[in-house]
Amino acid sequence: METTDLDIQVKTLPEQPGVYQYYDKDDRILYVGKAKNLKKRVSSYFNREHDSHRIGVMVKKIRNIKHIVVDSEMDALLLENNLIKKHQPRFNIMLRDDKTYPWLCIKKERFPRVFLTRQVIKDGSEYYGPYPSVRTVKTLMGLIKGLYQLRTCNYDLSQAKINQGKYKVCLEYHLGNCKGPCEDYQDEEEYLKQIDAIRNIVKGNLKDSLKDFRDQMHTLAEEMRYEEAEKVKRKINTLEKYQSKSTVVNPKISNVDVFSVVSDEGYGYVNFMQLSHGAIIRSHTIEMKKKLDETDEELLELGITEIRQRFESMSPEIYVPFEVKAGENVRVTVPKLGDKKAIVDLSTRNAKYFRMERFKQMKIVDPDRHTNRLMAQMKEDLRLSEEPRHIECFDNSNIQGSNPVAACVVFKNGKPSKKDYRKFNIKTVEGPDDFASMEEVVYRRYRRLLEEDEPLPQLVIVDGGKGQLSSGVTALERLGLRGKIPIIGIAKRLEELFYPGDKYPLYLDKKTETLKIIQQLRNEAHRFGITFHRNKRSKSAIGTELEEITGIGEKTSIELLQHFRSITKVKKASLKDLEEVIGTSKANLIYTHYHNNLDET
Q1: pLDDT for 341-376, tens place per residue?
Q2: Which has the least CB within 10 A, 5, 58, 148, 436?
Q3: Which region holds residue 428: left if phi is over 0, alpha if psi is between -120 and 50, else beta?
Q4: Which residues, in sequence order, are CB contacts of 122 under 8 Å at separation 6+?
Q5: In terms of pTM, does the model score above 0.70?
Q6: Can you give the three-state secondary structure of 566-590, one letter per residue?
Q7: Strand pairing partners for 104?
Q8: HEC states along 243-277?
């Protein structure tokens, strides 16, 4: 069956939370959906028959899939709502109404109230959200009320009216839920400290509140007010269990375009997010082929111009990860902290995922191009003079010096070449000496390649730090190959790469394909070596007991074990059964050995 563009798009989706959008052949949006796992959710539409006629019709119309990656399932729900209201997709029926989600409001007033609302009024009050359900906000409000004593009345608590004695404390005061600012029992500064703490909790910053409560608890405990200390401890436990939500919308961010860029040696990927009334309403990523060696700044500037023209964006402000030129009428902001920085980071994440998906698609439809790009990337990252089309990696395996062995695995064009794997029994080294063992196997491997006039690798990797690398270099030096074959060592703890003669290691980004290939080589060498070592150790352990019998050698031991499957069954076998396998004389030796020993016991 031929693989279609749609199949490839589905196969290369990320396994992350996000929102997906289906488009028809005329690029009209059909459907917007959310997912905890984008790949799994979207795949489910295409790998089974649907009971619903509506879904079946929609799936037949899909020609393109777009998606936006977010941090959590809750973010996906909120973003889905924004996009449905913006685009009104034909097949969405659940969230197309104009229902608004709830917000948490800190009212702009003296002794501010904190309450749930569905209306965002531009009166200077602070709004946090939106939240996916009223239950979520009520849970948060319950947390806040359990931690802090706030007023719930809607009185105008100006100092003049309080001084005039216009108000009397209510039941909330007598229940201990409010400290009575209406009768001047609580000063404004103390109250506002509580509001600051609530702001931090809503934003997910619990550190200061936890510190304050712990200080209170210790003070009360020192004063032997244990019941009060226990109440504060319960507040600490409640706060520690609370999981703050991340946000993809902020009512303070409005009419803004967000841009970011990631690049490699051949292409740049520019992501665009459009925000309207504090919500993401569009996300799009473009791939740009480098003509020369353009910088990320140049790529981003080109991308901003093209995308703003394509989508006819007139937003007066753009958020970007670094300074760029975007024209006289556009304000450029480079956020450093807070929600603005979070939205730029989200854009960068989407650009990175788009790049990864393009690589996966390339592997499917154009594997040669993928290999060429990967080899060029490894050459650059590892500072090599030529592309490492042929890489070999060595690893030693021994347990307390027993049965020392080593393995050499071979990768060609970034993939394992298992027919070229080699395993070595250590011959010249006594005891557990990793350095000497490494020198022996590297020397033996390349001496043989030279003798047989076989091609040498473009890169040699040894599993270990400076010591193992030095041993490998010594082996190459003995063969006159030092400087002719690049050799590096990889240390497990921090994945440092060591080069001969370099005092400091090289650290690659943990997400780079180059490091992933090197880790794959190292792990494959370890797997191959440890398997060989275990087999050798188990054969040694099994064969030893039978071979201790005078007149019984390795070949006879193997024949017996292949037939009887275990030492225990050999011991219990009758003389006749043993004779059928190894003949009369050897059968007598084994039968007599075990049965005489049984008689003695």
Answers
A1: 888 888 898 888 888 888 777 777 667 777 888 888
A2: 5
A3: alpha
A4: none
A5: no
A6: CHHHHHHCCHHHHHHHHCHHHHHHH
A7: 116, 128
A8: CCCCCCCCCCCCCEEEEEEEECCCEEEEEEEEEEC
